[in-house]
Design brief:
- The structure holds two protein chains of two kinds.
- By secondary structure, chain A is an all-beta fold.
- In chain A, the strands form two sheets. In chain A, strands 2, 4, 5, 9, 10 and 11 form a six-stranded mixed β-sheet that branches. A five-stranded antiparallel β-sheet of chain A has the order 1-3-8-7-6, with no helix packed on it.
- Chain A starts with a strand and ends with a strand.
- Chain B is globular and about 35 Å long.
- The chains are: A mainly beta, B mainly beta.
- At the A-B interface, strand 5, strand 9 and strand 10 of A face strand 4, strand 5, strand 6 and strand 10 of B.
């Protein structure tokens, strides 16, 4: 079974601080996705990374896919209260292409 | 265009009962996936349907079943409910299916089993 472990599990920071969330696995993934989920809503896709070493930027969010395609990171610069939510990484699971495995999640709280 | 809708949004059932949840995908999307989200286990894949066929299934007991209709709407059914089935059930739709296509999630149905 492919597992995606995220760290930290919880993060509470002040507005304006920087943070990094990690998504690690012992398995190779063909691609990884990052989602953000706000209370009472379903996850919303932020980005998909497909190439080892790839870096993608989405405003203040920077996503990196590890060279070996076993890990990924999400860095947020100057966090804002609107960044509060549950961050999830996800990738295609073994045993079926349409089967998606999600990470354990990182709950971020940005305090104004 | 309208997003993914799920009904009902909240549901309370007792142990042993069965429940049916409904998901209406975005127009034109033929793939619907179902997920269970709990604080302890996180977000787990239940199954995925495409053009009325189940293409993949997660590691859940046979009490969890689903189907998809010709208009791509999907239902999932849980029979003989257990306390541990209390969770947020999410469905997601895409044109051709994950992971190559973006999945759009609905707001979920929160099920409480007493």
């Amino acid at each position: 079974t492919q597992l995606l472990e995220q760290s930290p599990q919880f993060l509470s920071i002040q507005e304006g601080e920087n943070l990094t969330v990690y998504c690690n696995s012992s398995s190779v993934f063909s691609s990884l996705q990052w989602y953000r989920q706000e209370p009472g809503e379903g996850p919303v896709l932020l980005v998909t990374v497909v190439t080892g070493g790839e870096v993608k930027k989405l405003k203040r969010l920077t996503f990196q896919f590890g060279d070996a395609r076993k890990d990924s990171s999400l860095h947020i610069t100057a966090a804002q209260p609107g960044d509060t939510g549950l961050y999830l990484c996800a990738g295609p699971a073994s045993g079926g292409y349409q089967k998606v495995t999600f990470g354990t999640g990182t709950k971020l709280q940005v305090i104004p | 265009k309208a997003g993914v809708t799920q009904t009902p949004r909240y549901l309370i059932k007792t142990r042993g009962q069965q429940v049916t949840l409904s998901c209406s995908p975005i127009s034109g999307h033929r793939s619907v996936s179902w997920y269970q989200q709990t604080p302890g286990q996180g977000l787990q894949f239940l199954f995925e349907y495409f053009s009325e066929t189940q293409r993949n299934k997660g590691n859940f007991p046979g009490r969890f079943s689903g189907r998809q209709f010709s208009n791509s709407r999907s239902e999932m059914n849980v029979s003989t409910l257990e306390l541990g089935d209390s969770a947020l059930y999410l469905c997601a739709s895409s044109r051709e299916g994950p992971p190559q296509e973006t999945q759009y999630f609905g707001p979920g149905t929160r099920l409480l089993v007493l």
